[in-house]
Every structure is written in C-alpha cells, then in structure tokens.
Amino acid sequence: MTTAPRRALVRAPSPRLAQGLLTHLDRVPVDAELAVRQWSDYTRALTEAGWDTVEVPAAPECPDGVFVEDTVVMIGGTAVITSPGADERKPETMGTSVTVRALGYPTATLDAGTLDGGDVLKIGRTVYVGRTLRTSAEGIASLRRICEPLGHRVVAVPTTKVLHLKSAVTALPDGTVIGYEPLVDDPGFWPHFRPMPEEGGSHVVDLGEGRLLMAASAPRSAELIADLGFTPIPVDISEFEKLEGCVTCLSVRVRHAPDG
Ligand code: CIR
C-alpha cells in the first residue's frame, strides 16, 4: 500500500509584493522584510506539521505570486491549472504548471473563461466555486467539464462581498462551513454553517489530525475552534492580509498520488 503524499506548494514573496492588487481594501504600507519572515514562519508551520513544502519557482516580476493557491486546483491526482481573472496574474501559472508536472501530476487547463483557485472550496467530492469578479460563469462551466469525469460535482456560489469564495468561507475537517457572516452572501446556502467572530477566523488550512492553520488576527475564532475539539495553529500573516490574502492563499496542499 502506498501512503498518500503530504506536500504543500508554496512560492516565495516577490520584492514587488507591496504593489499587489487590491479590490476591497485601501492600500496601506507593506513591510517587505516582515512579509518574508512571516512567509518563512508559515512554511515552517507546514513543515512542522509533517507537510513537505515544494517551492514553485519564484516570480519576482509578479507582485501577487506568493498567493500560489490561485494558480492551481488539485482535483484528486490531477492538477487543474487556472486562468486567473486579473491579467496581471496570468503569468503566475507557468511556474506552477512546471512544478506539478515535475512531481508527476497530469495537468488540465480550462478551455474557456477565467478562474482563480481562491474561489474553489472542496468538501468531499463537491467542488464549490465562487462566481466573483475573478471567476466567470464560463470558467466555472469549464472546471465542471474537467471535474465531472473525475467524479466531482461543481456547484457555483455567487460571491460579491469579498475577493474570493474562500475569503468568505472555508470548511472544518467535518465539513462544517465557517465564515464571518457580514461577508458571506448567503449563510443559509450552506447546510452546516457556523459563524466566526472575526473576518480572519473564516479561513483554515486543514493540516490533518485535527490541526488547523489559522491567522493570528483571529484569536477569538481560534478559541471557538479549539472549543469544537480542533487544534488551531496560529500564524501571523498581517502583511499578506493587507493585500487581501489569507491563510489559505499561501499554499496548495497535494494529498493524492498522481492520477493515471
Ligand atoms: C489579488 O488581488 O489577487 C491578491 N492581492 C490577493 C489574492 C489572494 N488570494 C486568495 O484569496 N486566494
């Protein structure tokens, strides 16, 4: 029996990070040195939790390249390379594609529309996709054409209050969807929804064995999550939050052996 890999793709911050795109937030100064330290701490937290980090080649010319989640969606053992909705971010996918191929994963690409990985929330075999300024209806339909033969169903989720679906909601390991209600378009859409008291508390990265990577900016949410029986692992990502990034955006977990 082969054990499933536990790898996490990451990409080092660009020296141009402070020029990253903003949609819902006003620009405030970003401390580039602090961002690099925070990124190192983030990758160390992954490693300490048993995940091998794989660095996608740096893209110094891409301010938002560190948000590697937006460039690829893993559907089982297939890597779906995205079509980012912002033109400035389209060059980011090349390095990710090279990296997943080198790891042995077959890749698929969208045949129409745009889609950012931050809009894709997988819960079991259901793939929820935010319909946002970045992800078009055509992009969602295109992802559906890839996912259905792989045994995954795609459900579109209108998302207007934040950049990406996963800026609004993520899921606990038991499938409960968590989010900060003022920023969730329709909390009633989710069969099991639990509100969090802070915006940063909407985002968790499931590291396995009940451990959840969370932003340090959400201590009350972390307490609530600990009360639910999980183990929050806080990381300070303040410099990335200034650019509308959250704890999910900075990595892509690869949990299956390559398909085929
Ligand atoms: C952007 O606007 O694309 C970046 N400044 C932030 C991307 C954050 N990514 C994510 O939520 N998945």
Automatic annotation (TrEMBL):
GO terms for biological process: arginine metabolic process; citrulline metabolic process; positive regulation of nitric oxide biosynthetic process. Substrate binds at L22, D64, E69, D70, R89, R134, L243. Keywords: Hydrolase. InterPro entries: DDAH-like (IPR033199). The keyword Hydrolase applies. The keyword Repressor does not apply. Pfam families: ADI. The active site is at H164, C249. GO terms for molecular function: amino acid binding; dimethylargininase activity. Its EC number is 3.5.3.18. It comes from the Bacteria. Belongs to the DDAH family. PANTHER family: DIMETHYLARGININASE, DIMETHYLARGININE DIMETHYLAMINOHYDROLASE. This is Dimethylargininase.
